[in-house]
Design goal:
The protein is an alpha+beta fold and about 650 residues long. The protein has helices at about 45-55, 135-145, 150-155, 160-165, 165-175, 180-185, 195-200, 205-240, 245-270, 270-300, 310-355, 375-435, 450-555, 595-610, and strands at about 5-20, 20-25, 35, 85-95, 95-110, 120-130, 130-135, 560-570, 575-580, 615, 615-620, 635-640, 650. Helices cover about 60% and strands about 15% of the residues. Helix 8 packs across helix 13 and helix 9 (about 245-270) runs antiparallel to helix 13.
């Protein structure tokens, strides 16, 4: 905002074919003006004309167009008639006069194929002090004097409270009051320091939501601790009666008894006679395996393979038969190709004879003009025909020669194949005769070692004797061994039970440690819940403080107008709004038009002070206004006066 008061005064308005006004000129010379007339006489047209010249819109912010809801610049029924509405406004900007003019000109184009031009829309011509300007230059010049938002805010008594979106209205009020963010407001009061530290870079609503979420989690944890501690107390009560010292002594006694039984079992299992018998059994088993291996090697040495000539003869015969079949196939293929080639040669000869018989029968009359062709043209045509004839004859000869060469090559290859086929047939017959008379080798007779049967019988008898001896020794000690193993198994089960009881000693210690840890954690969580409750209470208290502080700062800008910026919610929070209210508490929507205008003037006075800017104020529907507040700026009042058919200026 500028430190120097900027002032804009309206000197004169001149309208021609604008809206319903054919021609009108109003001289204001920077003075206040009252416009009187019946409804529909065109009082608001003055405001629309100035707004259109400045920003291309009417007083309600609508742009020109053809729809009923658009700003209708032209008089009704004049669309495409050649009428060009024009408005000239003379302003005084900080003492310097400037003339702004706009002409709403029709565009006529002549489409291809049409004799008459057609109406194709409108365009706007802009002038500054009589000099034509481009639209961009014109807008930039106007913006240097006043922006569209400033114009609507400082000239229309109904715009801020009624037409402006409430969020934009609220943001503008906050900007005028220089309302800081939550962090800066929190820093104003020392009691909000804990909440400021918790806020960080987040908004108050996000911080409150996080605190509530953390408090919910902490409460759930706090509710779970009594259940956990009861479970630990029950565990301690169930286990604390066990005498772990007596259990350890009993486990040691039974472990000693178990060790003694294991020593006795070891003596039985490792007796020397039984061990020797088992060794003899193993040795006999090894000798039997060695004899079997030796005999197997002897039999394999006798199985000497003898050559069988039939396999080689059969392989040679198969190879010759395959080669013979390949050569016969090639011979037949070449023979068929020669027959086809002979037929093609006959065709070439026939074509050559037909070409020889061809005679030139060209046209001697020009197809374009119908006149006889000159002699040299006829000679050229005949020469071209003869050249083409010779070329086709030569082509037939060349193709025949190539085909003849191919036939000669194939006949030469067939003679070679015929010789090779005869040789292969002879070789086939020879191999077949040899295969027929080839001798089959006799199988070799294989026998065991000379003393194999006697040696195997002796080792088998020794193996049976050793097995019987081991069985006899095992049967004598089996009953005692089974008894000892049964006692050892019982002792193992009893020791497992004692070890299970001793394991409960660690469970008891862990349960007592958990009880202490839960008690400590419960206290810490309880303190955290108290801290979160305190912060949430501070957040609610700050919300009330912030709402009151901002409301007071905003309302201090105005004399008779107040703004409700917050609405209490059921959950204790505040919902944002921006509702204008008369100083006696009545909402803007319930007061009369005159009171609405006074509220708008009150707002404009405050905004002019804030912007350091004075603009002409237009007060429409001023018939109900009494005791119009005095503004330190030019004022144009539009009043409805029954019976006043023509506009009257005062």
């Amino acid at each position: 905002m500028s430190s120097i008061m900027k002032e804009l005064k309206l000197i004169s308005i001149e309208m021609e074919h604008f809206k319903g006004c054919e021609r009108r000129a109003v001289e204001l010379n920077g003075r206040d003006l009252i416009i009187l007339g019946e409804n529909g006489c065109g009082k608001t047209t003055h405001y629309d004309a100035v707004s259109w010249v400045l920003f291309g819109k009417d007083a309600q912010g609508r742009t020109p167009g053809d729809r009923p809801s658009d700003f209708q610049v032209k008089p009704n029924g004049s669309q495409g008639s050649g009428v060009m509405p024009a408005v000239t406004v003379v302003l005084e900007s900080d003492g310097v006069p400037v003339t702004l003019k706009k002409v709403y000109r029709e565009l006529w184009t002549k489409p291809r194929g049409c004799a008459e031009p057609r109406y194709s829309g409108n365009t706007t011509d802009c002038f500054i002090d009589g000099v034509p300007k481009k639209e961009g230059e014109y807008k930039a010049f106007v913006s240097s004097m006043v922006t569209e938002e400033q114009w609507r805010l400082l000239t229309d008594v109904y715009y801020f409270c009624n037409d402006m979106p409430w969020k934009g209205r609220r943001a503008l009020l906050f900007d005028l009051c220089k309302v800081g963010d939550d962090a800066s407001i929190l820093a104003e009061q020392p009691k909000f320091a804990p909440l400021l530290a918790e806020l960080g870079r987040h908004s108050l609503d996000d911080c409150r939501a996080r605190l509530r979420s953390e408090r919910l989690k902490a409460n759930k944890a706090l509710d779970a601790y009594p259940i956990r501690m009861d479970e630990c107390a029950k565990t301690v009560s169930d286990i604390s009666g066990i005498d772990f010292g007596a259990v350890r002594a009993e486990l040691a006694r039974r472990q000693a008894a178990h060790d003694e039984i294991q020593a006795q079992l070891s003596g039985i299992v490792h007796q020397s006679a039984l061990e020797a018998a088992r060794n003899r059994l193993a040795a006999a088993s090894n000798r039997l395996a060695a004899l079997e291996n030796e005999n197997t090697a002897h039999r394999q040495a006798q199985a000497v393979p003898q050559a069988d000539p039939r396999a080689a003869l059969q392989a040679d015969l198969d190879s010759v038969m395959q080669r013979l079949a390949d050569r016969e196939t090639a011979f037949d293929r070449d023979n068929a190709d020669i027959v086809t080639a002979e037929l093609r040669l006959d065709g070439y000869r026939k074509r050559w004879r037909e070409i020889v018989k061809e005679k030139w029968a060209g046209d001697k009359i020009c197809p374009s003009c119908g006149q006889p062709l000159p002699a040299h043209k006829i000679a050229d045509a005949k020469a071209e025909f003869e050249a083409g004839k010779r070329a086709r004859q030569q082509q037939a000869v060349d193709d025949s020669e190539l085909l003849k060469k191919d036939v000669a090559d194939k006949k030469a290859r067939m003679e070679a194949l015929d010789l090779e086929i005869a040789a292969l047939r002879l070789k086939k017959e020879d191999l077949a005769a040899k295969l027929e008379t080839a001798a089959v080798p006799e199988p070799v007779k294989v026998c065991d070692l000379p003393d194999y049967a006697a040696r195997k019988a002796a080792v088998t008898a020794e193996l049976a004797q050793a097995g019987q001896e081991v069985q006899k020794l095992c049967d004598d000690n089996k009953s005692l061994e089974n008894e000892l193993r049964g006692k050892a198994a019982v002792l193992s089960v009893e020791m497992d039970g004692l070890r299970g009881q001793l394991a409960k000693e660690d469970v008891l210690a862990e349960a007592r440690a958990r009880m202490e840890r839960y008690a400590s954690e419960r206290q810490a969580v309880g303190e955290e819940v108290s801290r979160l409750d305190g912060l949430l209470f501070l957040a609610d208290e700050f919300t009330l403080y912030k709402s009151q502080r901002i409301t007071d700062a905003v309302n201090a800008l105005f004399d008779n107008t107040r703004f409700r910026l917050f609405v209490p919610q059921v959950n204790g929070g505040l919902s944002e709004c921006c509702d204008p209210i008369l100083s006696d508490g009545r909402p803007y929507g319930t007061v009369s038009d005159g009171e609405k205008a006074k509220m708008g003037l009150d707002v404009i006075n405050a905004l002019m002070r804030a912007y350091d800017m004075r603009l002409p104020v237009f007060i429409d529907k001023a018939g109900e206004i009494t005791n119009v507040p005095k503004l330190d700026t030019q004022t144009i009042i539009m009043k409805a006066l029954e019976g006043q058919k023509e506009l009257k200026y005062a």
